[in-house]
Amino acid sequence: MSISTAAGVFDAIAAGPSDGRPVLLLHGFPQTGLAWQGQIAALAAEGYRVVAPDQRGYSPGVRPERAEDYRISLLVADVVAIADELGWSTFDLVGHDWGGAVAWWTASAHPGRVSTLTVVSTPHPDALAEALRTDDDQRARSRYMIDWRETPATEQRMLADDAGLLRSLYAEKVPRASADAYVRHLSRPGALTAALNWYRSGRPDGTIDVIEVPTLYVWSTGDTAFGPVPARETGRWVEGPYRFEVLPDLSHWIPEEAPETLNRLLLEHLRVHGTRNHRAPLTVEKTGSD
Are 39 and 94 within 8 A, CB to CB? Predict the structure, then answer.
C-alpha cells in the first residue's frame, strides 16, 4: 500500500481487518517494513489492523538528500502524519533498532496518541546517552556510529563485493531471503545514503521526557549494539506501567530471529493494556489498497 503525506509517499505493508485495533510497526537499519513479517501475520490473525511503513529515506517517495532532513523531530512527524492519513486517533506503536528510537521519541512527544509502546533492542535515548558518558562497554559498542558518518566511504565499503559488509551486519540471524531483499533495496541509487543519513543528521533537535504510556521493552543478551547498562537503566525513564523482558542468547535481530517469542510478548502486552486511550479508526482507510 501507499500512504501519502505532506512529506511524500510512504510504501507500507498492511494486513488485518480495516476496523481492527491499529498497530504501527517501525523498522530499523538496514531493513524495511519486511522486518516485521512475522509480527504482521500474528497480529493480523488476532484481528489487529497492522501497518509497517518503509520509513523516511527507505521509501523512494520520501527520500530527501540532505542529512539534516532526517532529524528525529521529522521522523516523529512522519509517524504522526502516517497515523493521521490512516485515520488513527490513537494506535499501538512498536519499534526496533532506529525504529525503536523513533518510537520512544513519539511516545514522549505524543502520549495522547500512543495507546501502548513496545520497543525491541533500543534503550530509552536518555539511558543510552548516559551510558555513552559513563560506560566503556557501551561506548565501544557504539563506535560504529561514528564510522558510519563518513561519506561516501561508508556506502562504498558496505556495497563492495556483493554488499559483503552490509550482509555481515545481519550476522546470519536474519532469513537469507529477507537479507537479500534488504540488500537489493539498499543497493538502489541513493537508498543506502538516505538510510545512513539517520546517523548523519546530528544531535536530536529537542529533549525527550519520561514515558507515561504502558511500555514493553525487550532486550537480548547477545545484542552487539546495545549493552546491559542502558538496557537495565531504561526503566528509570518510564513512569507508566513498565515491563522489561530479557531474552538470553539472542542477537540484535529479535523480530526475525525469534518471531514467536516476540509475538507472544507483544500480544500479551496489547491484551493487558487493551483499553487505554483506544478508539476505533476515525475513517475507513483512504490511502490505497494492499
Answer: yes
The grid coordinates of residue 2 equal 501507499
What SS3 class is residue 92?
Answer: strand
Position 178 pLDDT exceeds 90: yes
Measured CA angle at 131 (ends 126, 134), to 5 deg: 130
Spatial distance between the Cα atoms of 120 and 123, rounded to a whole number of angstroms: 8
Please choose, from the candidates 88, 109, 122, 112, the residue with its C-alpha nearest in 3D space to the C-alpha of residue 12.
88
pTM for the predicted model, two decimal places: 0.94
Cell matching residue 179: 537479507
Q: Which residues contact 52 (CB under 8 A, 6 or more apart)?
A: 12, 13, 14, 24, 25, 26, 27, 33, 34, 35, 36, 40
pLDDT (tens digit, 9 = 90+) per residue, 225-281? 999 999 999 999 999 999 999 999 999 999 999 999 999 999 999 999 986 444 433
Contact (CB, 8 A) for 140 and 191: no
CATH number assigned to the domain covering 2-272? 3.40.50.1820
> Under a CB-based contact definition with an 8 Å cutoff, are residues 262 and 120 in contact?
yes
